[in-house]
Amino acid sequence: QVQLVESGGGLVQAGGSLRLSCAASGRTFSNYIMGWFRQAPGKEREFVSNIRWSGGSTYYADSVKGRFTISRDNAKNTVYLQMNSLKPEDTAVYSCAANRVVGRSLQFLVLPGEYDYWGQGTQVTVSS
Question: Mind listing the pLDDT tens digit for each residue in 51-64?
Answer without folding.
Answer: 998 888 999 999 99
